[in-house]
Amino acid sequence: MQLTFIGADHEVTGSCHCLEIAGRHILVDYGMEQGRDSFENAPLPVSAAKIDFVFLTHAHIDHSGLLPQLAAQGFAGKIFATAATCDLCDIMLRDSAHIQAQESEWRSRKGKRNKEIEAASPQYLMEDVLAVLKRFVPCDYDEEIEVWRDEDGAGEIRIRFTDIGHLLGSASIEVWAREGSQRRKFVFSGDIGNADQPLLRDPQLTEEADYVIMESTYGDRLHSTEKPDVQRDLVEVLNRTFARGGNVVIPSFAVGRTQELLYYLRRIKKEKLVTAVDDFQVYVDSPLAVEATGIFQRNQQDCYDGDAQQLLKQGINPLTFPGLNLAITPDESRAINFVEDPCVILSASGMCEAGRIKHHLKHNLWREESTILFVGYQSVGTLGRAIVDGAEQVKLFGEVVDVRAEIAKIIGLSGHADRDGLIRWLDGFRETPKRVFVVHGEDTVAAGFADLLNRTKGQRAVAPYSGSIFDPVADRFIYEATPIPAKKKAAKAVSDVYERLKAAGARLIAVIGRNQGLANKELAKFADQVTALCDKWDNKRG
Prior knowledge:
Layout: E1 2-7, E2 16-21, E3 24-30, E4 53-55, H1 61-64, H2 67-72, E5 78-82, H3 83-113, H4 126-133, E6 136-139, E7 145-149, E8 155-163, E9 171-179, E10 182-188, E11 211-215, H5 230-244, E12 248-251, H6 257-270, E13 281-285, H7 287-298, H8 300-303, H9 306-313, E14 324-327, H10 330-335, E15 343-347, H11 357-364, E16 371-374, H12 383-388, E17 393-396, E18 399-402, E19 406-409, H13 419-426, E20 435-439, H14 443-457, E21 461-462, E22 469-471, E23 476-479, H15 497-514, H16 520-538
Parallel strand pairs: 3-4, 4-5, 5-6, 10-11, 11-20, 12-15, 12-16, 13-14, 13-15, 16-19, 20-21
Antiparallel strand pairs: 1-2, 1-22, 2-3, 7-8, 8-9, 9-10, 17-18, 22-23
Helix pairs in contact: 3-4, 3-7, 5-6
């Protein structure tokens, strides 16, 4: 039994951990890194073809974004996730592949004219997304699921998803592991949600664990000493911006944050709280956000909190209202730039790294009358972080744009629990876990939060670096990695034809390994088939 730390260790994105239980290899999340990469991530301890299962905490790309790459490299196992997470991954992973293809095409085009712009290959293609989507197994909250059990008694694996209140379908995951006579229970927190948020329920607690792997995004801060009044703050921004004749441009995560903002904007418009103009239009310029809103509506009974449920009982859809405009096509998106009256523009991505938001920034950043309103976390190294930190100029589509618009923030919409919220979740365990592993936080934040837990909560907490390997049976680290600064590396497309062939070969080796012990007659038949395939292709080059 081993636990290996791969991604989001002393970093915030690229979440990934690997469990080995009785010869079975499991990934908990396999996310894409976003923004600046501080440290090198260790490679997976086995090839993708030898990964048996993936347990996915939620659909955000920094937790799910590399699953198609895993499929392209030979993964053929099952991916367990809540039903809502399965639905969201269906649209988010397709969107990720689409954005990568667009970015690659743009960079290739520009690179031919400007040697300073590097060409970039997509990490995966749409066909890889379609392949991995077939691997998803939808699960219900609070249901104990037998993932695997060896008939000879070598081991078993069971899991349960608990609503963690971060995103529609988000969950902490309990993993019961048995290897021979040894039993251990792991709990992976996923991203712990903020309490008292619109739409979603508060994080639910878990009572028992031997080992806890928990996030620490806001482990060094409190959101506010007072309960934030998001609606009031949003009304103030709208009033002062519309009084200047400007637009309110909101870089918003298409899944989760956009739906929360629609919830507030419906109430603001219904109660006529904006006085600077008689009325205003709201544009959601993100096909992904539009699709995600539909998924929110389909999963409302399972995931919405009490207030939203009350609206539904009254026949009120909390996410729609008069004056809401959905931009799907590129022409509809471009038309927003020619709207003369002040308006609200919600567009992705939330950190301004890709998507249509970059076009709206280009049209509004230089306008003193407009406001760019940030409503979510901005990772170090992202365009959004640069703007929030006071950049006077930014580069968009190869052009320098002056930042003259008002830059504002609303912090009450955070999807992550603050320091006290993290501790409140950890306090839900009836007995102190053997150890707490602190992950998914910036370098000093993760280390500081682990130290806080040791000093004030009596926990055995540590913030391991990528590559560290822990033995839960012996209750000790087999290997404690040291940080390796990240190096800039060219993107490598795993989806070109030759790479796909190598992935198929790796999968074949994994299949051969899993068939050890099969009847000799069946093994001989398998060997003959492989030999015939080799004979067919061995002399193709003449």
